[in-house]
Amino acid sequence: MRPVLILRFSRTEGPGYLGDFLTEKGILWTQLNIDAEDALPDDINGFSGLVLMGGPMSVNDDLPWIPDVLKLIRQATETNIPVLGHCLGGQFMSKALGGQISQNPVKEIGWGGVSKVGLNPAPDWLGSLPSSFEVFQWHGETFSIPEGAERLLESPFCVNQAFLLNNRHLGLQCHIEMTAPMIEAWCVVGADEIAKATDSPGVQQPEAIMKGMVPRLEELHRVADILYGKWIQGLKH
Hints:
- This protein has a single domain (about 5-235), classed as Class I glutamine amidotransferase (GATase) domain (Rossmann fold, 3-Layer(aba) Sandwich).
- It is built from 8 helices and 9 strands.
- It has helices at about 15-25, 65-80, 90-95, 125, 180-190, 190-195, 205-210, 215-230; strands at about 5-10, 30-35, 50, 85, 100-115, 130-145, 150-155, 160-165, 170.
- Strand 3 (about 50), helix 2 and strand 4 form a beta-alpha-beta unit.
- Helix 2 (about 65-80) packs across helix 3 (about 90-95).
- About 40% of the residues are buried.
């Protein structure tokens, strides 16, 4: 099987648990660090899947590499190469597919619940998950659902938490890739952002984020196992 291509946009926002998951499943993957000026490939055809991680920038920023990222996403979806986006990555997916990225009503930072949309969305993907479960959040913007995609998840502070296109491409607003070192690093790097958003009902302080982190991560990884497990079934051989 060809390797999965993972795009990192920020030093502290690597693949985390996803990298461990792919390695455990014997799936090769390669990481390009856009934050370190790694060059994007001209096309996606040498890879079995495309993954986009999070980052502090906006998809709407005027950055020279953003058009090439959007082009890769469109190329992947047009050739049935599975795409998986986390937070900023999900926003990249939405914009590449014709959606809009805008400010969310409030920031979401920390642990929070998401709920399935409707009675039984994407049963092959979410069927073994409860109607509501906890994920990790860190975002101020949100995506619209692209035409032809199905909205899967919502939270009290953000109506669009996940979408699925063609039963193959999964865009997430939330983070399911978190590890303990990642959370600890984000709380340090993002301390000022948290301090400036104390009036947001969706923002937790670092003490609250760290509380009960081990069992919370165990539950989060169970969610990730289900979603990642379904996503890899579509990888190109």
